[in-house]
């Protein structure tokens, strides 16, 4: 099998998984919910493996042919020597292929662009989160409730959410304190503390750094939604070790309408994770009921593993040539 055929197969696989992957993610949901923390790691890794495999297509296409010479003879010979040091398909090169230098440059520029956009989005998110935290601290007061230090803000809605620890941690509204009994409040606080201890904010911030163009890929969009749900389920599981299921479900039901901070939507940073939301109650009270079909989860795991293997197989020869000083 030549490099061109492998490139076409890989490209077809990436397109198919990118377009129809959401069905697989949805089908794997029940089994993922049994081990939400493991599933978050798998899905997050899968996103970056898909992106890495897509970017490595350029390096694979370089092996398909030499392309027209666009550099001087001496520079061209240096590039040829480097590429030959990596290419396991040298005997099957096609002279009409795209110039190798341009092909590799496209891949490197795309990678640099993704990193640059990601850093910009991270900075913007951090600034937004910091400003929101300052606004809330200006109108709220810190208290110790059930052994946890929280910021209590005046608001007529039942609110409970969490900033990263460096930005203030847990925030509750006055209505939450009035509406929940002692055990329900303990369950909500346990849920929020789980967000902090399991570093859900870090995961959310890393994924939020993905450019909008990447986030619109069906597989990526569905995976991000699944990760957000699984983080909440993981926090619920931790809270269930502090209070019983009925108490936690009652607390979530009472707070069903308070899923957003009392701030304009444009001021909310992704580093804010919410405890409220009646949509999780069905999952909470019916968790692990009946048999679960693990085949979709295994199929998705296999797809990600194959992408990772393809990426390693393509990039390893380039790394080896670079470390050995092919020039």
Short structural summary:
This protein is an alpha+beta fold and 327 residues long.
How would you explain this protein's 3D organization?
This protein is α+β, with helices and mostly antiparallel strands and 327 residues long. It has one domain. It contains 14 helices and 5 strands. It has helices at 3-27, 29-34, 36-55, 57-62, 73-86, 100-139, 174-179, 182-197, 200-208, 212-215, 218-240, 245-254, 281-285, 295-324, and strands spanning 141-145, 148-153, 160-162, 170-173, 273-274. It has a 5-stranded mixed beta sheet with strand order 1-2-4-3-5, with helices on both faces. A hairpin with a 2-residue loop joins strand 1 and strand 2. The longest helix is centred in the middle third of the chain and has 40 residues, at 100-139. Mean pLDDT is 80; it is low at 67-78, 257-270 and 275-279.
User: pLDDT under 50 segments (min length 5)?
Assistant: 67-78, 257-270, 275-279
Kindly report the average pLDDT value.
80
Q: Supply the number of helical segments.
A: 14
Shape, principal axes of CA atoms: elongated
Please give the radius of gyration in angstroms.
Answer: 25 Å
Strand content: 5-15%
Number of DSSP strand runs: 5
Which structural category fits the helices and strands?
alpha+beta
Main sheet summary: 5 strands, mixed
DSSP helix fraction: 55-70%
Strand order of the largest sheet: 1-2-4-3-5
